Structure formats: structure tokens, C-alpha cells
Amino acid sequence: MLTVDFSRFPLAPGDRVLDLGCGAGRHAFECYRRGAQVVALDQNGEEIREVAKWFAAMKEAGEAPEGATATAMEGDALNLPFPDESFDVIIISEVMEHIPDDKGVLAEMVRVLKPGGRIAVTVPRYGPEKVCWALSDAYHEVEGGHIRIYKADELVAKIRQAGLKPYGSHHAHALHSPYWWLKCAFGVDNDKALPVRAYHKLLVWDIMKKPLATRVAEQALNPLIGKSFVVYATKPHLPRLDDEAAAK
């Protein structure tokens, strides 16, 4: 289940991609399939080991085209172990709401992103997230949980302040919002409640089968209750010194 829409966020074979806070690796795997040179980074060592296993399995199964590479590594989003201007593309999906110093994370991403490079940022959407917080303290008051809820204009402003140029946005995963409202209402750790189990079966069916009816429904509902807010931006090219001199 991808949050980033690659029709709006083009990826070329050979692009060097950083999936920052990759989690289980869903976006990293898609980039690998598309022929990128992928680095999946997360502070959770257990998840990184699983991602590395899946990369190896994908390579063995021939799922990645020739020239594609994939590396999984532990790391700190506030102190990335890469030189300046190392990546063509950066994805950070459902991560910034967990990190106290979100401006520091943006600064690190800008540092390692090449001029002209592209970045995709996804966070939980304000409205659906507020409902979850209202229904359940346990949803967010856990170690490593969500510490803030972004309003769309607040996130876009922070992206601009970091030196990036937003060029598009959208909402995603409308069908997942009711599921999380049910989880919060019946208990975030209570997977046995009948409404939660029934809705989970619906989501699994939707993900596996991708029926037209639910695709159309989600597309129609995304602007209203989409669970995630996605912003795409580029890092501008800085004027060359000779260009600045010529302009004076």
C-alpha cells in the first residue's frame, strides 16, 4: 500500500533514492522495482533486518531490473551518514509526526538532496488524526508515538522555510480513516472487536484484489477523509557565481 503517488512523483531508473524512516520498506521496495539505487534507512534495527531480507529475496526473484541496487541500514534522521547532495530523491512517509525536531530532519534532507532533486513528505492528515486523538489517548501516548498533528498549511510552510519548493499535494487512504476510528473507539490493542475485524477484512480484500468499486470510492473520499496528507517538493538550483555577477 503506497502513500506516495509515483505518477505525480516520477522516478527514473538509476535515481539514487533515500527512503528515510523506511519502516517495513513499502516505498523502498517500489523504488527498487522501478530501477532506482535505493537506500532504506530507519532507526529500528529489527525492521531494517527484515527490509534487507526482502531486498535479497526480490533480487533473487528477479523483481528488480538490471542496474538497480538496494541497501538497508540503521541510522539517525537528524544525523544522516551521507555527504552533501548524495540523493536525487528522498521519501519520508509517516515519520515527521514522531520526531520532536522536525525542522532538523528537514534541514538534513535538504543537505543530502541534490539541487533539482525531489522530495515526498507524507504525514497523517489533520482532521482524521484529530478524531483518533479525541477517541483514544493510547493511540498517540506511547513511546515513539505521534507527538503532533500537522495542518496542511503548517507543513507546507515548514517545507518552504527549509529551502524547498512545493509543487503538488494530495490526500490518500480514505478507506483507512474509519478503520483507525474504530480501533481507537474499541481500543487500539483490541483486534477482536467485531467491527474492527470486519473492517480489517474489507481493507485486506481491497489491498489484495484492488476492485474498481473501492478504488473509485477511495478516490472520491480522499479529499474529505483521506488518512494521509502528501506534499511533493523540489530543491531549487542555486544561482552560479558567474550568473550573479552577470545580473549586476
UniProtKB/TrEMBL annotation:
Q: Outline the extent of the Methyltransferase type domain.
A: 18-120
What does the entry give for GO biological process?
Answer: methylation
Q: Which UniProt keywords apply?
A: Methyltransferase, Transferase
InterPro entries the UniProt entry points to: Methyltransf_11, SAM-dependent_MTases_sf
* Lineage: superkingdom: Bacteria
GO molecular-function terms, A-Z? methyltransferase activity
The reply on keyword Transferase is yes
Q: What is this protein called?
A: Methyltransferase
